[in-house]
Every structure is written in structure tokens, then in C-alpha cells.
Amino acid sequence: MRERKTSPFLISLTVMLGMIMAIIDATIVNVALPTVAGNLGASVDDAAWIATGYILASVITMPLNGWLTAYFGRKRFYAGCILIFTVSSVLCGTATNIWQLVFYRVIQGFGGGALQPTAQAIMFETFPPAQRGSAMAIFGLGAMVGPALGPIMGGYIIDNASWPLIFYINLPIGLAAFLMTNAFLPNPHYLNKPKGGIDWLGLGLLSTGLASLQYVLERGQHDDWWSSDAIVILSVVAAIALTWFVVKTIRDRHPLVDLRVFRFRTFTIGNILMTIVGFGLFGTSLIMPLFFQTIMGMTAFDTGMALLPGAIATAICMVVVGRLMNRIDPRLLAGLGMVLFAWSCWALGNLNEQAGVGDVFMPRLIQGFAMGLLFVPLTTVMLGAIPREELAGATGVSLLLRQLGGSLGIAALTTLLARETAIAWNVLASGVVNARGQSTGMLTQLVAQSASVIAYDYLFRICAIVFIVALPLVYFVRPARSERAATKAAAAGGMPAMAMAE
Fold first, then answer.
1. How far is residue 364's CA from residue 366's CA, in Å, rounded to a whole number?
2. What does the DSSP 8-state code read for residue 62?
3. Does the N-terminal or the C-terminal CB of the chain have fewer CB atoms within 10 Å?
4. CA distance 138 to 126
5. Which residues contact 430 (CB under 8 A, 6 or more apart)?
6. Residues in the chain with pLDDT < 70?
């Protein structure tokens, strides 16, 4: 019997609840790490595993999204992931020691890692081609704005309540999302259960390879890269396991992860660009708060408020761009986004020790608009050529690459930050002449602060250069013919304002 059709609005609201819950939780925890470490009697270094454990689990789940969706059914799989995430959130709040909390966070990561790619696939399938720009704008509101809200909420909770509340707040949201998923989310008729059973060898290779790679990217700078035996060993393990997995996947008749989606040129090039977007988004999301707190002396809450205008700009821009895509070549919008993001990073590279909130307001605002211009056209066009039965797998692979691009960006920028700070310190210290009345400690502090500012400015400009170098790739991200035809029809008034889900 055919399922009754559900309003796309209800489907969108349902999947966005689960996705935003997971995204905000991933960032809200980072603000609370020092407090959690103090309350549980752990070092800050041990507490970092609260974030690392979650990421390691989530990157393993992302590429399996297509297979798991087909195996369990979309409604059951999405509802199950929400349930796992919600229950593990409550368990996190009951943890009595740091490693118990890390264990619960790993379980939470297995559930949370699938929520974002599944939500994106559902949103893309729910709307007709002419309205997919608007659908990706709605999806992008959570994907891009959510990370900006996490630090604000986390800072407020830590300042005014106890740390378990950052996990307990997921309970009502998770329950609502679970009930709505069972009530409103349809099961597509075209998804068939995978043949060949579970590929345990492939699963082992993928899990081992991705977990090793993510560990290297997360902990490389902390462990001094190749000076650490663990980093060297895990780098080799990641290279062997992932290479073996790719070769095996290409040869398998029923692969665990369908890499055939890369046969579409637009999808392949779009993912290269989205990996770079991940580099810029995650990288600047790391160095901006560090600059605000270490150089400008802001608290975590103040830092979140300083970043908020950019998030608001992203939200506004996404809504506008979702409509503009019916009239303007998406490559022009994405190209403008690349240029504006590069400009904002270059402008941030002019900050100094006397910088205030007013100095970062406009670059941050422009950066927010740039992310809206980038995200909606790229995601809409690169997924437009993918057959709907392959969308769940394609979104999982795509989000994994963006996550790895972000991890690579963070690893590269933290390494460069340490190196450039040391170089600037040596140059500045060699030219310091001790003036009468100034203590050595004061001079050392001034030199250290100036060296840090020079290093941060260098990193901002590196991000700008990366985006400019990648700009020519935008030309090759071309909409599929069916997408262009549907878009023209919608612009001429030939499509209904809202379609019903299958």
C-alpha cells in the first residue's frame, strides 16, 4: 500500500531537528572541555578525547550512510540514529570519570555521524529539481549556522549551570525528532536491501583506515608529528587500510561504499571544492576563536557573540541564494563566494594587538555571506546529477570528505601556527633593546603577543590564498541538463510553489 504523502515542510522540520541537535552538540562541548576536565579530575589533554572520540566514531559512520539506509530502511535508520544519539547524550551527563564520558561520546558519534548526511539526502529527494536550491538553503542553515550557536549556548550553560546540562538539553529535542521521524518520514519505494550481506573485511578496513587517519590529523601537532611512533605507525596503517579498501571496493560487485558516484564529473569536482570549503570553514572556525581569546582577551561567550553576525549573514544569504539559483548561473554565485571568503580572510590578516570587535565585524560579516554563496550552489549542483537511489551514499561520502578537509585544515593551521610563532619570536626577540624601567618579563610578554599576532595574520592569508587558487575549479561544476530545464521552468512560473514528497 502506498504511503500517504507528507508535506515537505514537516519532513524538513523533522530531519532538521535531528541534524541541528547533532551539529550544535559537537561544538557546544568544545567550550566546556576545561570545566568538564576540572569537575572530573582529568587533565585538559585527557578531556580533549571527549571531542576526538566523537569525531573518530562519526567519520566511520558517514561513508556507510548509503549502505545502512538501504539495509535498515530510511525511516528506521534515521529514527535509530536519533535514539542512539539521544540515549548516549543522557549517559554522557551521568558520567563520573573522564574515560566513561569518552566512551559514551564514541557511542554518540556513531549515531550523530549519520544524521547530517541522511538529512541532506532526504531534503534533496523531497523537493523537485527547481526547488532544490531552497532545500539546500534550509539544510545549510543547520549545517553552517549550528556551529556558531554551539559556543554561545555552551558558554552560557557553563557560566550559569552545571556541565551535564550541555548533554541533557538533547533529551527533549531528540524525543521530538524521534516521534516526528516515525510519524512523518516516508520510506522511499526505490531503496532495495543490499545484496551480498555485510562485508566484514571491508568494514574493518574502512573503520581502521578512517579512525587512524582522523587520529593522525587530530593529534599530529600535539604529538609533534613524525617524532611520535604512534603517529608514524597510524599513518602507515591508514595508508594501507584505505588503499586496500578502495581497491577492494572497486572490484566488489556489491560494495559497502559505492564509489561509482565519482563517475559524475560535477560531483567529483564539487567535492574537491567542498573539501576546500571544509578547510576554510573548520580552519577559520579554529583560528578566529583562538585569536579572539588569546589576543583580544574575550571569554568563550563573548567569542560566540562576536562570531554570531557571520552566522546570521550566512542564514540570510542562504535564503536569498536559494531563490537566485533559479535565475543566475550557480557557478557565478559560488565564484563570488570564493572571492568574498578570500577577501575576508585577507582582511583578518591585517589585525594587530589593538584590534577590537569593530575591526572583525565587517570581515566576519562578509565571510558569512560568502559561506551562503558557496554552500547552496555547490551542494545543489554537485548532487543534481546523482540518481536518487544513490543519494544517501553520495551525501555520506561528500560530508566525510568535507570533514576530512576540515581536519586537514585544522592540522595544517595548528602546525603552521606553532612554526610561524616560533619564527616570529626569534626575529622579534633578536631586535629587542631593553628600555629603562621595563622588566624582562614584560618585554617577553610583549614579544610573545606580537609573535602570535604575526602568526595568526599569516594563517588568515594562507586561507585566502587557498580559496583563490581553487577558484578556477568552480567553472567545471556545471548543472545537469535536467536541473537547468527544471530551473528555467520554475523561473517562468511552470513549477508549483511546493511539491509533495514521494
1. 5
2. G
3. N
4. 12
5. none
6. 1-6, 44, 143-146, 148, 196, 300, 431-441, 480-502
Angle (CA) 133-191-125 rounded to 5° is 10
Contacts of 46 (CB under 8 A, 6+ apart): 37, 98, 99
Q: What is the grid cell recorded at 112? A: 550523530
Q: Rounded distance, CA 18 to CA 54, Å?
A: 16
CB 344 within 8 A of CB 363: yes
279 neighbors 408 (Cβ within 8 angstroms): yes
Q: What does the CA dihedral 218, 221, 226, 231 come to, rounded to 10 degrees?
A: -20
Q: Which residues contact 161 (CB under 8 A, 6 or more apart)?
A: none
Give me 87's grid cell. Answer: 540515549
Q: Are 341 and 468 in contact, with CB atoms under 8 Å apart?
A: no
- Mean pLDDT over each residue of the chain, to the nearest integer: 81
Q: Look up cell 508535506; give the residue.
A: 7
Q: Which of 250, 261, 257 shows the shortest CA–CA distance to 383?
A: 261
What distance in Å separates the CA atoms of residue 207 and residue 220, rounded to the nearest whole number?
19
Q: What angle do CA 217, 219, 224 make, to 5 degrees?
A: 105
- Residue 147 has which C-alpha cell? 556551529
Q: List domains and CATH numbers for the chain.
A: 8-197 (1.20.1250.20), 200-253 (no CATH), 263-431+440-489 (1.20.1250.20)
Q: What is the pLDDT of residue 501?
A: 32
Per-residue pLDDT, 144: 67
pLDDT of amino acid 234: 92
Determine the 3-state secondary structure of 421 from DSSP.
Answer: helix
Could you tell me which of 355, 383, 458 has the C-alpha nearest to residue 125? 383
Three-class DSSP category at 17? helix
Please tell me the distance from the alpha carbon of residue 279 to that of residue 402, in angstroms, as a whole number. Answer: 8
Residue with grid cell 554570531, as numbered in its chain? 308
For residues 46 and 37, the answer to whether their CB atoms sit within 8 Å is yes
Residues in the chain: 502
186 within 8 A of 87, measured Cβ to Cβ = no
Identify the pLDDT of residue 490. Answer: 40
Nearest in space to 312 (alpha carbons), one of 301, 323, 304 = 304
What secondary structure letter does DSSP report for 171?
A: H
Any residues with CB less than 8 A from the CB of 42 and at least 6 apart, and which? Answer: 36, 97, 98
Residue 311, pLDDT score: 80
* 3-state percent helix, strand, coil for the chain, nearest multiple of 5: 80, 0, 20
User: What pLDDT score does 243 carry?
Assistant: 93
